[in-house]
Amino acid sequence: MGISDLGWRLSGSADLYSSEGRRPYASINFVTAHDGFTLRDLYSYNGKHNEANGEDNRDGTDNNRSWNCGAEGDTDDPAVTTLRHRMIRNQLTTLMLSTGVPMLVAGDEFGRTQEGNNNAYCQDSPLSWVDWDLSEWQQSLLDFSRRLVNLRRGHRVFRQRHFFRGKPVFEGGPKDLGWIDATGDEYNEREWHDPNLRTVGMYLSGYRRERTPDGHPIDDESYLIYLNASFEPADVVLPAAPWGGSYEAVLDSAEGTPDAAGQGAAGDTLTLAAHSALVLRVSG
């Protein structure tokens, strides 16, 4: 166990598919499905609440792998709701920017709830309907989701047709995929399998990874995605050459808006908010 498990999933699950001659798009990536909690409920309930199904809450799985962030169900506690919204944005970020095919359940993009019901197959009611009468925070989440979709759609680096090799894209250049630690260096083998690490940077090179149908190389921008799963903020040093010279924030899950502001140069220190994801565009 360790960040290696996360790394394989973020980069297309080559450990599962490459030996069979399959491509990254064999990996169907998802956080929630039609069975189980919605994404909003995943961070609102520790246990299922299926009483409305008429089976005394016996139906539906108990293995929800959920976290209510400090309160069960609806709450007015601003600390809890802020954390919940951030966790939802985190999951959407990792889903939409992972290599493979993203699968998103209808309504998760704006925070639909089934009020803790994880087995709503028998419900033809507001529990299972998709209600587009959005609250302010739901509209903000929808804007964030659209930003993610546009980022993925606009950059081939997030839609790889071939697995990464973990080798320099040109002599003296960065690797096509790199895993960056808090000091700006690559993780070593011990760290790669350390289950106690909570912060990781994923570098994706856009340099000529794909070609047009007539064989011309396609260049894309490169990106560095930081994930901080810690309960505390984390300082990270932006990596130097060959990874990049300057970095511009394009999306931050710690913010409630779809756009992020800020930039830094190689060697600068950034502070990642607790439980957050930060997407940086790489230059130089």
Can you offer a commentary on this structure?
By secondary structure, this protein is α+β, with helices and mostly antiparallel strands. It has two domains: 24-154, no CATH class; 165-283, Immunoglobulin-like, CATH 2.60.40. It is built from six helices and twelve strands. The protein has helices spanning 3-10, 14-17, 39-42, 78-96, 136-154, 189-192, and strands spanning 28-29, 101-102, 177-180, 199-204, 210-211, 217-218, 222-228, 234-237, 246-252, 263-265, 269-272, 276-283. The strands form four sheets. Strands 3-4-7-12-9-10 form a six-stranded antiparallel beta sheet, with helices on one face. Strands 1-2 form a two-stranded parallel sheet. A two-stranded antiparallel sheet has the order 5-6. A hairpin with a 5-residue loop joins strand 5 (210-211) and strand 6 (217-218). Helix 4 (78-96) runs parallel beside helix 5 (136-154). The two termini are 34 Å apart.
What would you say about this model in short?
The protein has six helices and twelve strands.
Number of domains: 2
**Strand and helix order:** HHEHHEHEHEEEEEEEEE
Biggest sheet strand order reads: 3-4-7-12-9-10
Measured between the Cα atoms of the first and last residue, the distance is: 34 Å
Low-confidence sequence ranges:
none
Computed CA radius of gyration, to the nearest angstrom: 20 Å
Summed over residues and divided by their number, the pLDDT gives a mean of 94
Largest sheet: 6 strands, antiparallel
The portion of residues assigned to helices is: 10-25%
Overall shape? globular
Tally of helical runs: 6
Strand tally is: 12
Report the sheet-strand fraction: 15-25%
Class by alpha and beta content: alpha+beta
